[in-house]
TrEMBL record:
This is Isoflavone reductase-like protein. Coiled coil: none annotated. The keyword Transport does not apply. It comes from the Eukaryota. Gene3D superfamilies: NAD(P)-binding Rossmann-like Domain (3.40.50.720), UDP-galactose 4-epimerase, domain 1 (3.90.25.10). It comes from Senna tora. It holds the Pfam family NmrA. Residues 3-308 form the NmrA-like domain. GO terms for molecular function: oxidoreductase activity. Keywords: NADP, Oxidoreductase. InterPro entries: NAD(P)-bd_dom_sf, NmrA-like, NmrA-type/Isoflavone_red_sf, PCBER-like. One of its GO terms (biological process) is lignan biosynthetic process.
Length: 312
């Protein structure tokens, strides 16, 4: 069997553009939706044109034009959605319901990967308001996929390093502090930090793999399972300096959270489950899932000591 033809929706976004590059690098005939709603966003247009130069095909389609989505889907074997689910950008998760209708009508897609790439929403039914909207919307999409009998793979990529490792998981910054650092609780609960290019690589490797069909692929490479305290220790070693540490109790965190803008509450509320509950590592992967680094040991994933060197 040849490599699948891949359609990527959201190919100019934070994770989407990395998935495009990974798809091309792994030899897949790669198609990217070019939405007319792009308007005057010239940076996104230039990203699309740069991919076209690399061999990707651009397909005009819109969520407001069902026929165009069906036509786009009919040209490929696999559809990967990377539409934004981040509230301080644009929360577009439920737009995928229109994409699902197109996939259902087209009838030819052998695998659909919806926009998840974070915490496993199936394990977040207890999440705090208002942040639970992210997980509720993703579960609405999952329900539609499964009711339509569309073959799927869900990607649980845990924490993007650009958001959580570079900042040492500090709120309000994406660069590591050099003097003072805040820890959530005692800082000892484990999380999983992923280089975004590795996320894209694992995603593309999964699309033609029968082992990931109708399963969740968890990205939990063992050397990137770290506590916040361990992550800070890596940074301290790199800069040869110990940081002053302030510990934030769960009560203090929740009090601060309530005073924030709604969009910030949605995103930062997830910190509570990650760093005070340890929701990323407090379970064993069962028969419903697979772990990426075990399936694809040939991927030399980026460890966080290597990742943080660029910030020194």
């Amino acid at each position: 069997m040849g490599k699948s033809k891949v359609l990527i929706v959201g190919g100019t976004g934070y994770i989407g553009r990395r998935i495009v590059r990974a798809s091309l690098a792994h030899g897949h005939e790669t198609y990217i939706v070019q939405r007319p709603e792009l308007g005057l966003q010239i940076e996104k247009l230039q990203i699309l044109l740069s991919f076209k130069k690399l061999g990707a095909h651009l397909i005009q389609a819109s969520f407001s034009d069902h026929g165009s989505l069906v036509d786009a889907v009919k040209q490929v074997d696999v559809v990967i959605s990377a539409v934004s689910g981040v509230h301080f950008r644009s929360h577009s998760i439920l737009l995928q319901l229109k994409l699902i209708e197109a996939i259902k009508e087209a009838g030819n897609v052998k695998r659909f990967l919806p926009s998840e790439f974070g915490l496993d929403p199936a394990r977040m039914g207890h999440a705090l308001e208002p942040g639970r909207v992210t997980f509720d919307d993703k579960m609405t999409v999952r329900k539609a996929i499964e009711e339509a009998n569309i073959p799927y793979t869900y990607i649980s990529a845990n924490l993007f390093a650009g958001y959580f490792a570079g900042s040492l998981s500090q709120m309000g910054s994406f660069v590591p502090p050099r003097d003072k650092v805040h820890l959530f609780g005692d800082g000892n609960l484990k999380a999983v930090f992923m280089d975004e290019d590795n996320v894209a690589t694992y995603t593309i490797k999964a699309i033609d793999d029968s082992r990931t069909l109708n399963k969740t692929l968890y990205l939990r490479p063992p050397e990137n399972i770290l506590s916040q305290r361990e992550l800070i220790g890596i940074w301290e070693k790199l800069i040869g300096k110990e940081l002053d540490k302030t510990y934030i109790s769960a009560e203090e965190f929740l009090t601060t959270l309530k005073g924030l803008d709604y969009k910030l509450q949605v995103g930062i509320g997830h910190f509570y489950h990650i760093f005070y509950e340890g929701c990323l590592t407090d379970f064993e992967i069962g028969e419903e899932g697979e772990e990426a680094s075990e399936l694809y040991p040939e991927v030399n994933y980026i460890r966080m000591d290597e990742y943080l060197k660029i910030y020194v």
